[in-house]
Amino acid sequence: MKKGDFVSAVAKQAGETKKTVEAVLDAMGSIIVEEVRDNGEDILIPGVGTFKQKRNEARMGRNPLTGESLKIKASKTIAFKALPSVKK
Prior knowledge:
Order of helices and strands: HHEEEEEH
Radius of gyration: 18 Å
């Protein structure tokens, strides 16, 4: 399902305009990235799952073309874990 289809489905079910739903979804995306990735906060979306910060430690890797070893620096990303009810 693409964003436009999702926005239409949510708007229809919630009885809101597509413009309002799209604005809310865009705001949610920005807030999730800012709070989880940048501030380390967990965000629970009721009935769906939890967004958490995942830290990838620095490690040694290798260039697949040349076989040369290189250092991969530490990084932060966002991980999502679905609720058990969603996994069924």
